[in-house]
Input
Amino acid sequence: MSDIIQVLRRHGIQATPQRIAVAEYVLAVRTHPSADEVWEQVRRRCPTLSRATVYNTLNLFVDKGLLKTQVLKEGTVVFDPRVDAHHHFIDVDTGKIYDVPWQALKVSGAKALRGFDVREYQVILRGRRVGK
Amino acid sequence: MSDIIQVLRRHGIQATPQRIAVAEYVLAVRTHPSADEVWEQVRRRCPTLSRATVYNTLNLFVDKGLLKTQVLKEGTVVFDPRVDAHHHFIDVDTGKIYDVPWQALKVSGAKALRGFDVREYQVILRGRRVGK
DNA sequence: GTCCGATATTAGACTTAGTATCACCTGGTG
DNA sequence: CACCAGGTGATACTAAGTCTAATATCGGAC
Output
């Protein structure tokens, strides 16, 4: 797991035990956890980890481009280890967030909006997960 | 302004002075105010209005289909009097939210997503307002 | 009009997400 | 060794939102 350290260094982040523990969890996760969810999980392995450090660490990771924040849930920001462009589907029953690949949807017209210099966009879809 | 009362009644909402005051503000507004912003504004006309009533009233309006909530800002839900489908543009400098007409963008592929029963969707665009 | 149950309103306590403060603790440098 | 930068942790604080319990008001039955 020492490639985590490499990843941190490559992003200009000094590796510490706490940061490594947070990174191991948050970079591998397939859900979209909030800061407090990250704290709860990582604390099981590293019980001295403080809430402030988790918030500091996650915000640092965002600054350094390791994570992105997404505003998808009421009441909390979630963190997403996928920093490339993609869309999101939100299950209206469970609140679960699913990634939707960029190529799965096509959006046209964004460049033509007058008065708006669009830097990025994504589609937010809501509905129900079926099958699977 | 008594057509506000008609609008409330038509949506099955008992008209009270507080609800009328909130409705007058929030149904006419062009911005996307948070509950506390609504409180602050409406309180100027109706100083006895309590915070709890504003929250109750706005949530009631949402239940009854007069408003929609939108999760577009960190830390707060905003209320939108436009209940028909449209997209949103967020100015990354100011945080201001702009409506983008439904017809201005075309999204294809949403119906074809396997495993997802899409009920609604919208495009969230971020960038800078230019010109006016 | 009066009474009464149902519904609204209010102030304030409470909860939760997130930030700020500050003391302490490292690890590298002169 | 002394020092300084940066990281960590406990705790205080702020802000969004909900809950509660007491009071006020509405609307219908008489």
Observations:
- The mean pLDDT of chain A is 96.
